[in-house]
Design a protein that fits this description.
six-stranded antiparallel β-sheet; 20 strands
């Protein structure tokens, strides 16, 4: 078990999301950076959908009440265990009584803390993910609060001879200072003015203060918003780039609405969702045009490397248990 001492701006229990219900108006929610969450669970040989903690912007503290194997991925928050740096992207054994602290995010926006074999949580519609807007899942559908206690899915094992893995991974490292997001043009793309299309494909954009798990509004505005024709509402996905009437594009996130009626300029390729999820207010980004074939090829290449790495991780855990 761990106890929340300081939750920070927004810490919540998440998994890969609540899928199969969007047609009924129930959003997916889940980890904003599903890739970092998946890597954290894989480091511990957990199920990829095991519940874990998402810490946003830092400023959080957790007291470890029972020992266990932990793994940290995502944003760089100078995480520490009892005042000593907590190594990211590798399994670490943490003793009972330890204090895990997350400072303000130095790079990225969201960090993920997993425990072996996952935090204990009830599943609603197949998922333990917290949907803060709908108040579903997690702990009462809300952010973590001081004194909350989260148990482990099973009792922790006896203390191992090895307390830290002698290896780490470069998967799920903090994003670059100026990430490039591949954008697959959507149905409203041809209706944009030539100037707006050139701006989207060539200029840097800045995330405004209006940014949360639902979406990220960009500071720059596009002139075409005044001329685009209204559309019927349509289903929307993570990474959809919408253009509302005020001209400031919005990149949709994990707690997006299930449908949207703003013109759809395009969708960020899934292989770049992690970089999108790690953006915070004031961060800059660039968009590069791509197509479905190129996006699929990039995703397949990443998955191939990930699956080979996962085999090696499982072999290490098997050797530890032998």
């Amino acid at each position: 078990m761990i106890r929340v001492r300081t939750p920070g701006p927004c810490s919540s229990l998440q998994d890969q999301g609540r899928y199969g219900w969007q047609s009924l108006g129930v959003g997916t929610a889940g980890a904003m950076d599903r890739w970092a969450a998946r890597v954290a669970n894989t480091l511990l040989d957990n199920d990829a959908n095991a519940p874990l903690l998402e810490v946003t912007l830092g400023g959080a503290e957790f007291e470890v009440l029972e020992p266990g194997w932990f793994a940290l991925t995502g944003a760089d928050m100078a995480a520490a265990c009892n005042g000593q740096p907590l190594p990211p992207c590798r399994p670490v054994w943490v003793e009972a009584g330890s204090l895990l602290r997350f400072d303000a995010a130095r790079r990225g926006c969201r960090a993920y803390l997993a425990v072996r074999p996952g935090f204990a949580a009830e599943r609603l519609m197949g998922s333990a993910a917290t949907d803060l807007r709908a108040r579903l899942g997690g702990i009462g559908g809300r952010r973590l609060e001081r004194a909350d206690v989260l148990g482990y899915a099973q009792a922790p094992p006896a203390a191992p001879a090895v307390r830290i893995a002698p290896w780490s991974t470069r998967f799920a490292q903090p994003p670059e200072a100026l990430p490039w997001l591949g954008l697959i043009p959507g149905p409203a793309w041809p209706a944009l003015s030539l100037r707006d299309r050139e701006r989207i494909a060539g200029e840097a954009f800045t995330v405004s203060r209006a940014a949360d798990r639902m979406g990220l509004r960009l500071e720059q505005s596009l002139e075409s918003a005044a001329t685009l024709a209204p559309i019927l509402s349509q289903g929307v996905v993570f990474g959809a780039l919408q253009l509302p009437p005020d001209g400031h594009p919005i990149l949709l996130g994990a707690e997006r609405q299930t449908t949207g009626g703003y013109p759809l300029l395009g969708v960020v390729a899934s292989v770049d969702h992690a970089a999108l999820a790690q953006l915070k207010p004031g961060d800059a980004l660039r968009l590069r045009l791509t197509d479905v074939a190129a996006a699929q090829a990039a995703w397949r290449a990443r998955e191939l490397g990930f699956r080979r790495w996962r085999i090696a991780v499982r072999a290490w855990w098997a050797s530890l248990a032998a």
